[in-house]
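Comment thread on ticket #2218

A.B. wrote:
> Attaching the input chain for the structure job we discussed in standup.
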Amino acid sequence: MRLGTSLFVGCNGQKHTKTSHCDPETKQEVALFHPRQQLWSEHFSWNDDFT
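C.D. wrote:
> Ran it. Output below, let me know if you need it in another format.
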């Protein structure tokens, strides 16, 4: 088995279909960022202290 295949079957194999997640603060289901369909600047921003 090649290394790439073994990684997909293990860790990433369980994440590739995940498109949403429960926000721990609001308890609402929210969409995850999709880098091929969405712009980074519309989902993320820097605070004044760069966090």
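A.B. wrote:
> Thanks. Noting for the ticket: The first strand starts at residue 20 and ends at 22.
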